[in-house]
Design a protein that fits this description.
mainly alpha, Arp2/3 complex 21 kDa subunit ARPC3, Hypothetical protein af1432
């Protein structure tokens, strides 16, 4: 009977949610606003009084007003704290000496990195909160676990690559204070931030290639996961295995997140602050790059010269405390302008010298032109400014002596006089020790090829002669190289050249000094 009756009943009213909500809002709008004033010092509730809804309303209103004033004072206090920290930070940066960084650029870089890292943390935390709210089950809905996913080590890792670990150590002191204050972390959280930053520095300082960044992130993730588990075991109520595994997994992912952010932003910071990192240098030192391959094919003599100069520069850089990798890579590109007219440079010539068919002034213009072309190609290929600068500086304002002497002989026939300045490179002179080393290595390597006697004594005479002539010509007047450093460079060059031109034991039964037999005719 019940089934029959239920089948005959038809609903004659339906719930309209939108209309109901609209009616409720209309009813709220029709209620008059009630403003109640409480005089200062008025007692809202006494001990023993019965607490009603009106009392609760008044207490909540007073609490909101009080917290607003307290929040304002906290903001002002925090602003003063940040100001004091930044002042101390800027002061200590003055004691850090870095080759590629001026004081103002370094302060700007560290301040920008600090700001970007803190903003990145806030944005990441907002996303993590939203993700945690989308879950219903614990521990996935507990946002405190997502704290361990945040990219706390991003800034210290970036600073390590661009400015070195000493700078990164100074950076994390101030970053940890600001990050801890920003998130209101307890001692466990602060310790986690500090250790992950220190670990990030240790792993990142060994990364010299892009693939090395991934390895550093993987190691950082493992360290962060282990640190999370250690910190949790020290708490009074350690989490269960599900919560512990979830937190450790997030901590591990944080290592990869940090590395991902570093990899994406590193080229941008390199471009903005004009810094050449070990990672970038390793990429530019790849001999299979199209630009290097082009030089190898078009100008094989220049290519071999660049490789030899790079070896000389690498040893000299170690001797005076410069970056060997930078000078070796810079040597690869210092003569790339010769790819435009390779046949006009002696190392690429075979039997015919094109300079014999043109005027002296045209030859000088071609030699000067390879510097201009080198700068153009370097900028087109987006080479770092520090490498581009060495292309003109390694020639300085040196005299093109061969063509100057040739012009003097031509002028002597007609009774004219020749000035030196038109036969000099356009400069500038070397501005750094690296440019000075490259200038010397370039000249010494080329001159050593002309020697018949390549004994160690003769090589030393050659090196000292070129260094003396270059110094007397005033080429080092604008860089800070010292006599002590010049002496170390001299013996570094000697050691490298001696290894190039070492003697060999004669092959028994062979005399390679005898004239060679003619080649047999080729079969058609």
């Amino acid at each position: 009977m019940r089934r029959i009756v239920e089948g005959m009943i038809v609903p004659n009213a339906t719930f309209d949610e939108s209309m109901t909500k609209s009616s409720q809002e209309e009813a709220v709008r029709n209620v008059d606003h009630v403003l109640r004033k409480l005089k200062k010092g008025k007692v809202v509730l006494r001990q023993g009084d019965e607490v009603g809804a009106d009392h609760l309303f008044q207490i909540e209103a007073i609490r909101k007003i009080s917290s607003t004033g307290s929040s304002t004072m906290q903001t002002i206090g925090m602003a003063f704290l940040i100001g004091i920290l930044l002042t101390i930070f800027v002061f200590f940066v003055r004691f850090i000496s870095l080759n590629q960084w001026s004081y103002l650029r370094l302060v700007g870089f560290l301040t920008l990195t600090l700001t970007v890292n803190l903003l990145m943390l806030k944005a990441s935390w907002y996303v993590c909160e939203s993700v945690s709210q989308s879950f219903l089950a614990s521990p996935f809905n507990d946002k405190t676990y997502f704290f361990y996913l945040l990219p706390f080590a991003y800034g210290s890792m970036l600073v390590t690559i661009l400015a070195g670990e000493r700078c990164a150590q100074l950076f994390i002191i101030f970053f940890c204070v600001l990050a801890g204050q920003s998130f209101g972390t307890d001692s466990y959280g602060f310790f986690y931030i500090l250790i992950t930053n220190l670990t990030g520095i240790v792993f990142m300082r060994k990364a010299t290639q892009r693939i090395g960044l991934i390895g550093a992130g993987f190691k950082l993730g493992l360290s962060a996961a282990l640190l999370f588990l250690i910190l949790q075991t020290t708490r009074q109520a350690p989490p269960d295995w599900i919560s512990g595994s979830f937190g450790a997994a997030l901590a591990f992912l944080s290592g990869l997140v940090n590395t991902l952010f570093v990899a994406f932003t590193l080229p941008l910071f390199e471009r903005i602050f004009m810094v050449t990192t070990e990672v970038r240098l390793s990429e530019l030192g790849n001999l299979n790059l199209p630009l290097i391959r082009e030089m190898m094919i078009k100008t094989p003599g220049t290519y071999n010269h660049c490789i030899a100069v790079g070896t000389l520069c690498e040893g000299a850089a170690k001797a005076v405390g410069l970056n060997p990798l930078f000078l070796r890579v810079a040597s690869l590109y210092h003569d790339i302008g010769k790819t435009v007219q390779p046949e006009y440079f002696v190392e690429n010539q075979h039997e015919v010298n094109p300079h014999d068919q043109i005027g002296t002034q045209q030859s000088v213009d071609i030699l000067k032109g390879h510097v201009i072309e080198g700068i153009r190609i370097a900028k087109k290929e987006y080479l770092p400014p520090s490498i581009v600068d060495l292309i003109p500086q390694h020639h300085g304002t040196k005299l093109m002596r061969f063509f100057y002497e040739k012009a003097k002989k031509e002028a002597a026939v007609s009774g004219g006089e020749i000035q030196k300045d038109p036969y000099r490179y356009s400069g500038p002179k070397p501005q750094t020790k690296a440019a000075a080393i490259l200038m010397l290595a370039d000249g010494i390597e080329a001159a050593a090829r002309t020697l018949n006697d390549r004994s160690q004594q003769q090589l030393l005479v050659l090196i000292q002669k070129i260094i003396s002539d270059t110094t007397e010509d005033g080429q080092f007047s604008e860089c800070s190289i010292t006599l002590s450093e010049m002496n170390r460079i001299t013996y570094s060059f000697l050691e490298t050249l001696s290894s190039y031109y070492h003697g060999r034991v004669a092959y028994p039964g062979f005399d390679f000094n005898n004239p060679l037999l003619p080649l047999p005719p080729q079969k058609s």
